[in-house]
Write a structure and sequence with these properties.
Blueprint (H helix, E strand, L loop, with lengths): L1 H62 L7 H20 L1 E3 L2 E3 L5 H27 L8 H56 L4 H18 L1 H26 L8 H31 L7 E4 L1 H18 L3 E6 L5 E5 H17 L6 E8 L5 E7 L9 H5 L19 H11 L3 E7 L3 E8 L4 E2 L6
Parallel strand pairs: 4-6
Antiparallel strand pairs: 1-2, 3-5, 5-10, 6-7, 7-9, 8-9
Helix pairs in contact: 1-2, 1-3, 1-4, 2-3, 3-4, 4-5, 4-6, 5-6, 6-7, 7-11, 8-9, 9-11
């Protein structure tokens, strides 16, 4: 049986190595493809601007007597700009390398429009040269020439920006794919640790190496590796103890506690992944609010109830004070609950034992809705507030676990509030506590129905 376990374990390790090697190789291929496809296209857009600007400069300096040149010199640069634009549509190569053709339809339309503008610029440049002198600023030809040039440069700038935006979007989607692959491998590692405990040291070594490789691939993954690993280790450890029946046959009260810990660790993992994916959706502009009319008092009480256990563990008093007859709020209830959970959890985290956290709701001065979370915690220096609100940043304090959380909580809250058209303010005094206020605009406030 042990031989079979060892054999299966070796097979699993081999499969895991193949998966990781495939992921790394796939990462390399995608990165190379991005560089080969988009970098030359961005360079081509820059060359179009350079050639057009050079042609404009030669023409002006020649007509003003500052340079001796021929019309052919001007036309050569304009034609070179046209060549770069056309090669973006059909692909090609020159001394700078190979250009892959542009595939995105909307970008091809922009390039085709630029080619038309280059042709018009060429025609106007020839007409201007034919006159032999600089046009006056009031001459219609002067106006048309400069307007066409400015329009061409603006159009190429738009192409360059669109190319960079497209490349960033694709890399962002690829980063999410990498994250999913990493999480899958980590989960498989946890399962393997339960099934093949006799060789857990080898599994741990392989997993550690995989984590190191993943950290090297992305600073983003490095910032959350501890948070992913901690609950996974708890799941593996408690599962192994249950499998080995450390406290006797299953049914012992210890196992109920371990099962609860495994469940809690799973919830922590799910929360981390939700934070990461929600941030990706927000940054990509694809986070959709599912709006409804909610009773904000019920939402606050649900959040407070959910986090009472966390507060009780530190002997922290957690209260909620909601103004009477508070109107309803129109928004995404899941997002509002997420905001409250993050703010309250953060307040509990940085409040010493015996402290106090208060959640309040009231009408704001502009007749909007104001949510407020106050704590008697350690507070934050004024110069550190921006850091606390930035993604992946955490305030370091020797009395608190620096790895508790991803550093995304407050940043996510800010973005979710922004999506509702609201504002989040952060007030804090070192050693005295912190107050975070969320202000929803008046148009999201729905009066309560009057019961007669």
């Amino acid at each position: 049986m042990n031989v079979r376990f060892l054999h299966n374990h070796i097979i699993w390790i081999f499969c895991a190595v193949v998966v990781m090697a495939g992921a790394v190789f796939f990462s390399f291929l995608i990165g190379r493809d991005m560089a080969q496809r988009y970098a030359p296209l961005v360079d081509a857009a820059m060359e179009i601007k350079l050639e057009a600007t050079t042609a404009h400069l030669i023409l002006d300096e020649s007509l003003s007597g500052q340079r001796i040149a021929e019309l052919s010199d001007v036309i050569r640069h304009i034609d070179q700009a046209s060549w770069y634009a056309r090669v973006m549509l059909k692909g090609g190569n020159n001394q700078k390398g190979t250009f892959l053709l542009l595939e995105e339809p909307e970008l091809r339309v922009l390039v085709e429009e630029s080619i038309q503008k280059i042709s018009l610029f060429r025609k106007l440049a020839a007409e201007r040269w034919g006159k032999g002198t600089l046009f006056t600023t009031t001459d219609i030809k002067h106006v048309d020439f400069h307007h066409t040039f400015d329009d061409l440069i603006s159009s190429v700038d738009q192409i360059e920006t669109a190319l960079q935006h497209t490349m960033q979007n694709r890399m962002q989607k690829f980063t999410i794919l990498q994250l999913v692959l990493v999480i899958v491998v980590l989960v498989l590692g946890a399962i393997a640790g339960i099934l093949f405990q006799q060789n857990k040291k080898k599994l741990q070594h392989a997993r550690d190496e995989a984590e190191l490789a993943n950290k090297a691939k992305s600073a983003f993954l490095a910032s959350i590796s501890h948070d992913l690993r901690t609950p996974l280790n708890a799941i593996v450890g408690f599962s192994e103890m249950m499998k080995e029946q450390t406290f006797g046959p299953l049914g012992n009260f210890h196992y109920e506690e371990y099962a609860s810990d495994i469940r809690d660790s799973g919830h922590i993992l799910l929360t981390l992944i939700d934070d990461i994916l929600d941030l990706s959706r927000i940054e990509a502009g694809k986070y959709i609010l599912v709006e409804e009319t909610m009773d904000i008092e019920d939402t606050i009480k649900a959040s407070v109830k959910m986090l009472h256990g966390q507060a009780d563990t530190k002997n922290i008093a957690l209260f909620d004070h909601v103004a009477p007859q508070l109107p309803h709020l129109h928004g995404d209830q899941k997002s509002v609950l997420r905001i409250l959970n993050n703010l309250i959890s953060n307040a509990i985290k940085f409040t010493p034992e015996g402290g106090e956290v208060i959640v309040q709701a009231m009408i704001s001065k502009d007749n909007g809705l104001k949510l407020q979370v106050k704590d008697t915690g350690i507070g934050v220096k004024k110069e550190d507030i921006a850091k606390a609100l930035a993604p992946y940043e955490q305030i370091v304090c020797k009395d608190f676990d620096p790895h508790a959380g991803t550093g995304l909580g407050l940043f996510l809250c800010c973005n979710l509030v922004d999506l509702h058209g609201g504002e989040m303010t952060f007030e804090s005094e070192l050693g005295k506590g912190t107050t975070i206020s969320v202000l929803f605009p008046p148009e999201r406030v729905i009066p309560r129905a009057i019961n007669i």
